[in-house]
Amino acid sequence: MLDPAHPVFDPEHLGATIAWLGFGLAFVFGAVAHRVNFCTMGAVSDVINIGDWGRMRMWLLAIAVAMLGANLLHLFGYIDLERSMYPAARFSWLSYVLGGLLFGVGMTLASGCGSRNLVRLGGGNLKSLVVLTFLAVSAYMTMKGVLAVPRAGVLDPVALHFEGGQGMPNLLAGLAGMDVRSARWIATGFVVTALLLFILKDREFRRSRELILGGAVVGLVIAAGWYVTGHLGYVPEDPETLEETFAGTNTRRPESFSFVGPVGYSLELLLLWTDSSLRVTFGVAIVAGLVLGSLAYALVTRNFRWETFASAADLRNHVLGGVLMGFGGITAMGCTIGQGLSGVSSLALGSFLALAAIVAGSAVTMRFLYWRLAGKG
Question: Is there a contact between 41 and 116 (Cβ–Cβ < 8 Å)?
Fold first, then answer.
């Protein structure tokens, strides 16, 4: 239960404060992700191509840390994960699966997901600028434009309804006849323990301080994002609507990191800058913070390099990848970070399904591309 009596910041400037805090967290994320080469597609590629699980274990460690942090914050009353969009009663399974598959295909064609392309942009990769432009346009079209028609009219209605919500604690409580709080302790403990056992059983990973630090920092940033929007940004009564809200977020709910919708909102803000109704939100701020954090690391370490397309085919693949990620990410309600870290950390069933679809889409696309390449050779 959130405590409404926690006036940490001046309410008038609370939204801006939330955005600045998000920027700072994303700056750290960007620098660390650049340093340790944090990339979901890269992790999948390493496993498929060379059997190396190092980066995959780093990514799973980030999930475990984010999940543990977010649920401890929930259990001790600092945030309420049930108020986020992930554990909603509506389980749009077709949107999760199809959106996730398309996102996985897109991130493989585009050499990385949205967050990875933001990091690469900070390092001087102009291919990422093209990817992000098409991702932003596609995402916005899927939220509010022509692509919203098939999403909202065809895909989203195909859904199941869970009366108590689709969160694993709620489902476990209903099946086992226990209270939701106890079920959350059990679900969090079981999943986090299982992940850590798998992650730390590898001796080489245990010896890699860089991979461990990278996974831990990314996971802590996700948990901190929940705290910033879900606790510091909590407003018991909005002066205009007289309803509770969460300042500085696009959804007016608790959020953590995600990079498909926010890239679309960033483009909207740049195009309509003089529209006084638009603000730099938490999501928009983390997009800027990720790029600048990566840029700062690239400049300090002197590895900033301009990169561009090698051929027309390379350009075509990256453009298509950006479009697929924009549509798929919005349809699946998140990307490898939005669903794969933030959503999964809330223990929402749909997030696990979307994440599995993303990984499957990426893995199948990699196999196909290598098969076609081998055939040409």
Answer: yes
pLDDT at 31: 98
User: Is pLDDT above 90 for 248?
Assistant: yes
Q: What is the pLDDT of residue 3?
A: 52
Domain residue spans of the chain: 12-376
- Predicted confidence band of residue 307 (pLDDT cuts 50, 70, 90): very high
HEC string for the chain: CCCCCCCCCCHHHHHHHHHHHHHHHHHHHHHHHHHHCCCHHHHHHHHHHHCCCHHHHHHHHHHHHHHHHHHHHHHCCCCCHHHCCCCCCEECHHHHHHHHHHHHHHHHHCCCCHHHHHHHHHCCEHHHHHHHHHHHHHHHHHHHCCCHHHHHHHHCCCCEECCCCCEHHHHHHHHHCCCHHHHHHHHHHHHHHHHHHHHHCCHHHHHCHHHHHHHHHHHHHHHHHHHHHHHHCEECCCCCCCCCEECCCCCCCCCCCCCCHHHHHHHHHHHCCCCCCCCCCHHHHHHHHHHHHHHHHHHHCCCCCCECCCCHHHHHHHHHHHHHHHHHHHHCCCCCCHHHHHHHHCCEHHHHHHHHHHHHHHHHHHHHHHHHHHHHC
Over residues 20-30, the mean pLDDT reads 98
| pTM for this prediction | 0.94
The pLDDT confidence band at residue 237, using thresholds 50, 70 and 90, is confident
Tell me the pLDDT band of 8, cut-offs 50, 70 and 90. very low
The structure tokens listed for 78 are: 């600092």
Scored b (16 or more CB within 10 A) or e, 71-89 reads bebbeeebbbbbbbbbbbe
What is the residue whose two structure tokens read 């909102």? 265
Measured distance CA(340)–CA(251) in Å, rounded: 19
